[in-house]
Automatic annotation (TrEMBL):
GO terms for cellular component: cytoplasm; plasma membrane. Its EC number is 3.6.5.4. Residues 104-305 form the SRP54-type proteins GTP-binding domain. Part of the signal recognition particle protein translocation system, which is composed of SRP and FtsY. SRP is a ribonucleoprotein composed of Ffh and a 4.5S RNA molecule. The keyword Hydrolase applies. PANTHER family: SIGNAL RECOGNITION PARTICLE RECEPTOR SUBUNIT ALPHA. It is an enzyme of class 3 (hydrolase). This is Signal recognition particle receptor FtsY. InterPro entries: AAA+_ATPase, P-loop_NTPase, Signal_recog_particl_SRP54_hlx, SR_rcpt_FtsY, SRP/SRP_N, SRP54_GTPase_dom, SRP54_N_sf. It comes from Sphingomonas oleivorans. It comes from the Bacteria. Residues 10-89 form the Signal recognition particle SRP54 helical bundle domain.
Length: 312
């Protein structure tokens, strides 16, 4: 890979969280033993570092158990934070598997404008192509001509077929056509772009309900996945998006994008802790191969800043 490596971008994505952790825990070391007051201070420092109350409580419990009568140092504390964050992230790390029978597996992709939805669809398509699956796209975000055009450009670029219609057209009938053609052509995965607008909840619900109804006639198990794309740069706002989309759209999993362009990636831990939804992948750039499987221990170490100790 050219310029910056994937791993460095990942570290960058979690830099602010690990920086804040450093600021909050400095000054807590060098005590002979861990008394209650120090444990309280560490727990508060972790909450203030964006890691969420459950992670903070887990770390506190671990420290209380192990006692550290000889005192605790920063590298050891960061290591424990990494271990406890990994325990929260591990159960939600689940790549999207193509296992639907009959084929195709239908993946609806939702997310607010600008979240990186279109790019993520292209990246997912590319990932599946690399695994030798036959992929087809459906340009179901028919609200804007630009959205249709952009998805077509991606489809051309990566060489996958796409079903599209006119602006303002009926998304459900495109999805119907996609499943029929996909079935006839032996396609494994149908990835459907949708108009994931939150401004009009009722409209979105109606549209998704219609897509579900139409799909159900062809295959009652479809859609197999409803993937919400979240922009990491929005920080805590991503949590409220999960809340709403979960209720409105029956989200089955998440992809978090733009981790390269922000330092607010700690929200991943809060999302995992609060909602327990599978995290399928993370986006770290605009190129088609910038979507990576979500590796919980690598992410946990980046958040805790384990590798940065001694680099200051
Ligand atoms: N740095 C970075 N940029 C990304 C990433 N994913 C998407 N983008 C960029 O974010 C912008 C919005 O991405 P789109 O995929 O167009 O987002 P969308 O949600 O489909 O947005 P609309 O087309 O406005 O509905 C584009 O400029 C993308 O190149 C990522 O992981 N990292």
């Amino acid at each position: 890979m050219n310029e910056i490596s994937w791993h460095e971008r990942l570290l960058g994505g979690f830099r602010r969280t690990s920086d804040r952790l450093g600021e909050n825990i400095s000054g807590l070391f060098g005590k002979a033993a861990l008394d209650e007051a120090t444990l309280d201070a560490i727990e508060e420092a972790l909450i203030a570092s964006d890691l969420g109350p459950a992670t903070a409580a887990r770390v506190r419990d671990r420290l209380a158990e192990e006692r550290f009568e000889l005192g605790l140092d920063e590298p050891r504390l960061r290591e424990i934070v990494a271990q406890e964050v990994a325990k929260i992230l591990s159960p939600v790390a689940k790549p999207l598997e193509i296992e639907a029978f009959p084929r195709p597996q239908v993946i609806l992709v939702i997310g607010v404008n600008g979240s990186g939805k279109t790019t993520t669809i292209a990246k997912l398509a590319h990932l599946f192509q690399e695994q030798d699956y036959g992929v087809m796209l459906v340009a179901g975000d028919t609200f804007r001509a630009a959205a249709i055009g952009q998805l077509k450009v991606w489809a051309d670029r990566i060489g996958v077929p796409i079903i599209s219609g006119k602006e303002g057209g009926d998304a459900a009938s495109l999805v119907f056509e996609g499943v029929k053609r996909g079935t006839a052509e032996g396609i494994d995965v149908l990835i459907v772009d949708t108009a994931g607008r939150l401004q009009n909840k009722a409209g979105l619900m109606d549209e998704l309900a219609k897509i579900r109804r139409v799909l159900g006639r062809l295959n009652p198990a479809a859609p197999h996945d409803v993937v919400l794309v979240l922009d990491a740069t929005t920080g805590q706002n991503a949590l409220s998006q999960i809340e709403v989309f979960k209720e409105v759209a029956g989200v089955t999993g998440l992809v978090m994008t733009k981790l390269d362009g922000t330092a607010r990636g700690g929200v991943l831990v809060a999302a995992a802790e609060k909602y327990g939804l599978p995290i399928h992948a993370i986006g770290v750039g605009e190129a088609v191969d910038d979507l990576r499987p979500f590796d919980p221990s690598e992410v946990a170490r980046a958040i805790a800043g384990v590798e940065r100790i001694g680099m200051k």
